[in-house]
Fold each of these.
Amino acid sequence: MVDSALSPVTVSAEQRHELEPYLDDLESRIDDSQESAIFEQWQAFATGAFTGDLFKPVRSRKSAPTISWPRIYVNDALDSIVFMALQQLGACSSQLANGGGYLLSVRSNYGTPILPSVFGAEIFRMEHSQDTLPCSRAMTKEQLRTAIEHGVPDLRHGFGRAALDAGEWFSTLFADYPNIKKHVALYHPDTQGPMDICEMLRGSDLFEDVYEDPLFLHALLALVTQTYIAYMKRWQKIVPPRADGVAVHWGMLHRGTVMLRDDSAMNFSGRMYEEFIMPYERQILDTLGGGAVHFCGRGDHFVMAATSLHGMAAVNMTQPEFNNLDIICRATVDKGIQLLDFPARAVEALVAAGHDLGGNVHVA
């Protein structure tokens, strides 16, 4: 199923009324003192003031919902800002009910195609039953050459508009609920990272470009990076960066403002990372005030270079079993760079191997 037309976010009074029971429920269950306490724990961890060994916060008490929250499928949330709000706020409700240790947070949840669609990439939805975020189709090289000639595109094209509009609407929606406004963070959409976006725009032809047309790839990376920065600056007009220099992402706190994605980097050598990815991530971090990086799969061949970037404060990685954990430690905790949401089994392996984690690991 392919989206051919995307509408701006519009919400009627009747639709807002539909959300009131859920907003009232969440507002009544958010305990200011408990949420302030867990934020202070996260802030101490993010800023290096945590004095423990392993960081795994939990709420002091659970708070069950007073109403039944519905399950919202991804495709329904894409079509309705009301369903989007229920999907995102429902996760906050579950966090309170389970007494979890993550911060309450929501985002404009339109998936990886946000910035590719700004360039004109066609959005492709998965089947409704799969309950999975959409992806996008690659563009032709000729289309991308034209994009490079034209410069930064209209940031409100495709899902770019939907994500910005949803952010603005979330901001207004929370205005009448002081606990939600104070304790539910609105974090930036999935803007991916420069090379990840290029891979979505080029498809598998990207890997030929590295060898056969590196000048084109650098030109595309430069444009993507400029667009990323422009989009994030536009987002920051909706949600200004915090004055204390930290940001919430996926319910976790890190120094800086952005969460880069390097999922494509596992397919490149360390040298290629330094040539094709590192300069553009440096530009983003320097311009936007630092941040963190996420990657799936193997990253031990580029993580040392990534964490050498000024302003890189934390790493969120999955599948540590595919990595040399000695290298991961030297690139992160040994340098005071934090590991976020690190699987407990991997933490146990590090401790058993005698690694001093220095209070820089958040345990999933």
Note: The first strand starts at residue 105 and ends at 106.
Amino acid sequence: MPIPLMPGSPLKYDNEYKRHGTCNIFAAVEPKAGRHFIEVTDRRSKADFAIFIRDMVEMEYKEATKVRIVLDNLNTHFEKSFYETFPHKQVTRLLKRIQFVYTPKHASWLNMAEIVINMMENECLNRNIKSRKLLENELQAWTYQNNAERRKIKWSFTREKADKKLSKYYVS
């Protein structure tokens, strides 16, 4: 849309961005197996997080006795989210099978889900997506392709390198 000319000012154009709503994307990855799990939700609430983790553990890892999940310190990423969402017996049963591993506060870049989100942004979400349904379809196709290819994350950052780099954040 052209902006009206003013004396001494060249012709200008304005581009209006039309927002079609917002939503949240949960992402999880099993880096050595090349398995990706993506879910779109209306919000990023404690209940949404707890449901995403429960569904992933109970459907995708139903045979596993222990599922280790690396998390950053987002305000929803805590056991309290489960207690606020599910009955106590269900939480106890579920949390027996989960081991949460938290990345240091200033090291969320260690979280491999962040790598997956970056991949997703570059390969799938780098444009205006006009509807939630289209977003879900695009992410489903992206996830299917990555899982079919068993697209893994080659992690070269060793525990020793992490200890050295992050030692200033450790409490002795």
Note: The mean pLDDT is 87.
Amino acid sequence: MQRIFSGAFVVGLAACTTSTDDRSPTYQLGFGDGCTTASTETAGAPREPRRNRALYESDPDYRSGWLSGRAQCLAPGPASGFVRGNN
């Protein structure tokens, strides 16, 4: 049983990471800023988003990276599929 759980955990963890190495540098920058923004949002303290306003408005790669980074870092982890019974 523990072996199944460990395997599911590793697969779930891999699904939560996305390689941005094959993306443009501005996409990678936007992804990092979007993810940082999501992290501060989930901390509960309202803060301004971390975003390069000029790049967000003019560079589609930065904007796409920012939106992707924020969405991925806000998303809850994968469900374990484990349902606890009332025994």
Note: The CA atoms of residues 36 and 80 lie 26 Å apart.
